[in-house]
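Bumping my old thread because nobody answered last time. Still need a sequence for this structure:
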């Protein structure tokens, strides 16, 4: 029985050495991953900033140029408004409105956050925007999903009041 006990001790020590070696290797891989992820995020930020500059958009100032700049950062086009010079200066409420319009069946705040978290620093601000839009009766909530209310398009030849 002592031979078995000695064999277990030897196998345990060997397994412990392998575990320590694997932990060290995992830490090295995680460090490399973090470095690549940081480089990727930095390059993505630079790309977004550069895409918003007028000299990188030959049609700067047009609705199409604004749509292209926002498509890179938000994954969507704007509602025809020209984007500010820097992509980081985009109106966050308009960005949320546009994302809500792109999801006619509705979108949960969690899914919405996943799409805008690179553009907003605090998640609570997203909920503040959603509350304001709900208070203004621009969105409705059904089963936990926010849905943009459709605004009828003005008919040609008839005057429409300007809503603010």
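Sorry it took so long. Here it is:
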């Amino acid at each position: 029985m002592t031979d078995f006990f000695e064999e277990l001790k030897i196998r345990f020590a060997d397994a412990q050495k392998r575990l320590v070696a694997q932990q060290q290797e995992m830490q090295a891989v995680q460090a490399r991953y973090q470095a690549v992820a940081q480089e990727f995020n930095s390059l993505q930020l630079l790309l977004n900033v550069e895409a918003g500059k007028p000299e990188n958009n030959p049609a700067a100032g047009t609705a199409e140029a604004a749509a292209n700049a926002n498509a890179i950062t938000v994954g969507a086009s704007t509602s025809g408004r020209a984007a500010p010079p820097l992509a980081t200066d985009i109106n966050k409420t308009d960005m949320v409105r546009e994302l809500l319009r792109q999801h006619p069946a509705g979108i949960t705040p969690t899914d919405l956050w996943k799409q805008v978290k690179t553009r907003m620093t605090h998640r609570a601000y997203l909920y503040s925007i959603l509350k304001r839009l709900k208070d203004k009766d621009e969105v409705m909530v059904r089963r936990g999903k926010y849905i943009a209310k459709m605004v009828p398009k003005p008919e040609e030849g008839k005057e429409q009041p300007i809503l603010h």
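Residues 65-87 have pLDDT under 50 and may be disordered. Let me know if any region looks off to you.
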